[in-house]
Amino acid sequence: MARRAPLCETENVSTPLPALIFDLDGTLTDSKPGILGCLRKVIEAYQISYSGPLDRFVGPPVEEWTVELMPQASEEARVALARDYRACYDREGWKNNSVFPGVREMLTQLHRQGFPLYVCTSKQHRFAVRILEAFELAGLFTVLPHDDVTELMAFLSKEQAERVRNILSQREIQARNIMSSDYVVAQKSDKAGDVLTAIRGSGRDPKSISYIYVVNGDGKTLLGVVDLRDLVLAQEHLTMSDVMVSPVVSAEEDDVQDDLVEMFVKYQYHMIPVVDRNDRILGVLYHNDIDNLISQ
Asked: Is the pLDDT of residue 187 over 80?
C-alpha cells in the first residue's frame, strides 16, 4: 500500500503583515498653514497683486501656480519665485504644520500590532526625518538598517553584489566629503562698495564669486546671501545686511548624494553652502562637482 504524502500544516502559521505606506503632507500632517504663510510672504516680497483665496494653490505643483501669479513674467522670474517660496517653506513654513487629529493614535496602534510603517515623500531624506522627529513620529516608522542590506547582498551573485556595493557607496557620499573651501564671505556690516572692490582685486576664480555669504561677527554663522549681480547694482553705502537674502538655502554636512542632487535640481543654484547644525558655514558645493559625481 502506497504511503500518503505528508501534509503541510499551515493553519497555525502566522501570515506576515503587509507594509503600510503613508504620504507625509496632507495625509499625516496638515501642511496648509505653512504653505499659505510662505505664499503670503513671497507674494508680498514680489509685490504681486492677487486678492483671491490662496487655498486653491495648496496641492498643485509650485510651477503651476507661479504661472498664474505671474502670467506676464519671464521664466527666470517664475523660477526665482518658486525658489524663494521653497526656501521659506524648508526653513520655517513646515514648523507651522500640525499632525492631523487621530493620526498619532492610529500610527501608534498599527505599530504595536506589528505593521511595518513607511513614509513616501518627495522631500529630502533629512528634511522628512526632521519633520517626523519634530512631531514625535519618527520612532513609529521602519527603515532598512545597513546590517540588513549587507545580509541581503549575500544572496546575490558576486557581480551583482559588487554593483550594489558601488551604488550604495556612492549614495553614502556626504556633503562634507566633496565640499570646497573656495567661497567668499563678508560681514553683515561691510559696505557693498568695499566688498565689490575687494573682490575685484582678489584674483579669485570667477566661479567662486557667484554668491557672497554674509556671516556674523564670529566669521562663521551664516546669516544671508548676496547674488553678485545684486551686489554690482547696489548702492555703495549700503551694508551687506541691507542687500542680503535670508534665510539661505543650505546643505547640512551629512547630507548624502541623493539629497544634494535633488537640492540642485530644485533650486537651480550654481553653488550651495554647507553648514553644521548651528548654521556655521563649512564650505560650498558646486553644481559642476555634483554633475561629475553623477556621471562617474
From this structure: yes
